[in-house]
Design a protein that fits this description.
By secondary structure, the protein is α/β, with parallel strands linked by helices. It has helices at about 20-25, 45-55, 85-110, 120-125, 135-140, 150-160, 175-185, 195, 205, 225-235, and strands spanning about 5, 30-35, 55-60, 60-70, 75-80, 175, 190, 215, 240. The strands form two sheets. Strands 6-4-5-7-8-9 form a six-stranded mixed β-sheet. Strands 1-2-3 form a three-stranded parallel β-sheet, with helices on one face.
């Protein structure tokens, strides 16, 4: 059994179609896979159809862009094995996707004021099947430099971070609301890469409203993060998950299945 419970596709901010991700997963011996595209479950039918073709077991997934308002930090909440209709998840994510898309259109206008010539109609078309434009889609029109390259990172920082002309962010979903929506839809809520976003202090509080797990294995996690996740999982009776956080060409160089998830009840 080889399990990757954290991959993204072109339904959000990944560069690859579901079929392309599946093909790579099959080549690398992955038996169980979960697409956790940001704030959308519109990918589910496509994923299920492709899974039959590639003979891979898929676990319905999502990664909700949430926020710890007490500590003023982002926190990402993964949701697994929710009911297909996912009404509660859809209800909290729809306004967020609208805010993100409006913000991206504003970013395009601000970047064009610098002398760039980005056609928002072209970006909307190339972003499909995602109906939301992400920074990765904008960057793809600004540079063909690889995501891991210095040129890409410098341009990204110059435009989108600190005092950049397109800096700023949207209002995210309260982390407690994200967990509760996943649980109400029959799913298992898991805090994503707590080491990356320093989400550890929030975890015991989320456990009180139904948090079911923690992501242990992630490219950004250190051995210290592994130890902290294991200790919290044991203390709070939480499952542990993991994966590559694969984004194709829109993310760091990594192969699907290169980082595997611990075996847990999601796979039974």
């Amino acid at each position: 059994m080889k399990v990757d419970l954290h991959v993204h596709s072109h339904y959000s901010d990944g560069s690859d179609a579901v079929s392309k991700v599946m093909k790579q997963a099959k080549k690398n011996g992955v038996t169980h896979l979960s697409f956790v595209d940001h704030d959308t479950v519109d990918n589910l039918l496509d994923i299920q159809q492709q899974a039959i073709h590639f003979d891979i077991d898929v676990i319905p997934g999502i990664e909700i862009s949430a926020y710890d308002f007490k500590r003023k930090r982002k926190v990402h909440v993964l949701g697994y094995n929710y009911k297909p209709e996912a009404n509660h998840i859809r209800n909290i994510c729809k306004p967020l996707l609208q805010r993100r898309n409006e913000h991206s259109l504003w970013q395009i206008r601000k970047i064009n004021e610098l002398g760039y010539q980005i056609d928002e109609r072209v970006i909307k078309q190339t972003a499909l099947p995602s109906n939301t434009i992400y920074k990765q889609h904008i960057m793809d029109k600004l540079t063909k430099a690889p995501y891991d390259s210095l040129d890409y990172r410098q341009l990204y920082q110059q435009l989108f971070k600190h005092n950049g002309v397109a800096a700023g962010d949207i209002v995210y979903i309260d982390a407690f609301d994200a967990v509760e929506a996943i649980v109400k839809d029959g799913g298992v809520a898991v805090v994503a890469h707590p080491g990356q976003l320093d989400s550890y202090d929030l975890i015991p509080e989320l456990a009180e409203v139904g948090l079911g797990g923690l992501e242990r294995n992630h490219p950004d996690h250190t051995e210290r993060d592994h130890d902290k996740v294991e200790a919290l999982a044991e203390e709070l009776d939480l499952i542990m998950t993991g994966g590559t956080d694969y984004h194709g060409g829109f993310g760091s160089s990594i192969q699907v299945g290169e980082i595997s998830s611990p075996v847990n009840k999601l796979l039974v």
